[in-house]
Specification:
By secondary structure, the chain is of the alpha/beta class. The chain has two domains: 173 residues, NAD(P)-binding Rossmann-like Domain (Rossmann fold, 3-Layer(aba) Sandwich); 144 residues, N-(1-d-carboxylethyl)-l-norvaline Dehydrogenase, domain 2 (Orthogonal Bundle). It contains 15 helices and twelve strands. The strands form three sheets. Strands 5-2-1-6-7-10-11-12 form an eight-stranded mixed beta sheet, with helices on both faces. Helix 4 links the parallel strand 6 and strand 7. Helix 8 packs across helix 13. It starts with a strand and ends with a helix.
Length: 321
């Protein structure tokens, strides 16, 4: 198949590595000239343990080239840039299937990414993948699991075909809402888990947080119109457990800094120099649950700890009350 990928970050490169192993023809887009030249000339991702990018993966800053005559266009830019990227691609999207590899929610509109893509491209050929996957593990061909959600069976089928191999296990679902919620909320829970670690509590307490939070996320999914059982999928429990116990997670690292009472300037510098999608998700879901009057105390508390300087110890009190 001919496949375009919008975005050349670590996860975009990781997805490209799967698609390449499956003998797909791949073209990747970046808007940054310096990044384009580096990828073309050096073909190495230093932040992926110096992963060597195969020579036949093409790179371009021409968004038309990455979209036209493609069977699938993957979107792998951070959630906050999905709308602006899709707007650039609108003239070149016709009947292509779209797969969203980004996780999160658009803060300005409080819309889930598949809804944005469906609206901008005026298509129902939209799917989303989510699951417990670190990019470096994907490029190392470690066995991984992904949830693939779409309302369109044909789209699910073709995306599945592009990704399926002997180290990628894919679970297909039509619960797009639940899959999106899990992919975004897990970053908030990772911040909470990091706070617990930073406070000096053991992994047993983190496990307590994860277990109790599963019930909260299930309720949130049901209230917003998804299927609660999605919490037990790769996108749900799988991604939550990975993100909440791994120090590879930037969200977890931020939480640990907060729990350890690292000085405010250091935390601010970390936030400014690191993409921490949990903060966008936190602000977005804080607005959603308060607008819809849904009681999810863990989200409100983490919001108050980060933005209203509440004592991180309140997290332990919430878990044990």
């Amino acid at each position: 198949m001919k496949i375009g990928i919008l975005g050349t970050g670590v996860f975009g490169i990781a997805i490209a590595s799967i698609l390449h192993k499956n003998r797909n023809n791949i073209t990747m887009w970046t808007k940054f000239e310096d990044e384009l030249n580096d990828l073309k000339n050096n073909r190495v991702r230093s932040n992926l343990n110096n992963y060597i990018i195969p020579d036949d993966i093409k790179f371009t800053n021409d968004i038309k080239e990455v979209c036209v005559n493609k069977d699938i266009v993957y979107i792998a830019v951070p959630a906050e840039y999905v709308s602006v990227t899709c707007n650039k691609a609108i003239p070149y999207i016709n009947n292509q299937h779209i797969c969203i590899a980004s996780k999160g929610i658009e803060e300005s509109s409080l819309m889930f990414l598949p809804d944005i893509v469906k609206q901008l491209f005026n298509t129902n050929r939209v799917g989303v993948i989510s699951g417990p996957t670190f990019a470096i593990d994907i490029t190392n061909s470690a066995p991984i699991g992904l949830s693939l959600a779409s309302y369109n069976p044909e789209t699910s089928k073709i995306i599945y075909k592009s990704l399926d191999n002997n180290f990628v296990k894919i679970f297909i679902t039509n619960d797009v809402i639940g899959t999106c919620i899990c992919g975004a909320v897990k970053n908030i829970l990772a911040i909470a888990s990091g706070i617990i670690n930073g406070l000096g509590y053991p992994i047993s307490t983190q496990a307590m947080l994860i277990t109790q939070s599963l019930h909260d996320v299930k309720e949130l999914i049901n209230k917003i119109g998804g299927t609660g059982s999605t919490i037990l999928s790769f996108a749900g429990f799988g991604d939550i457990i990975l993100t909440c116990i791994s120090e590879k997670s930037r969200n977890y690292t931020l939480g640990k800094m907060i729990g350890s009472r690292v000085d405010i300037i250091t935390i601010k510098e970390y936030i400014e120099n690191t993409t921490i999608e949990g903060l966008t998700a936190l602000r977005s879901f804080h607005n959603i649950i308060n607008d819809k009057k849904i009681d999810i105390p863990i989200i409100n508390l983490i919001y108050n700890i980060i933005y209203n300087k509440k004592n991180p110890d309140k997290l332990i009190k919430l878990l044990t009350k």
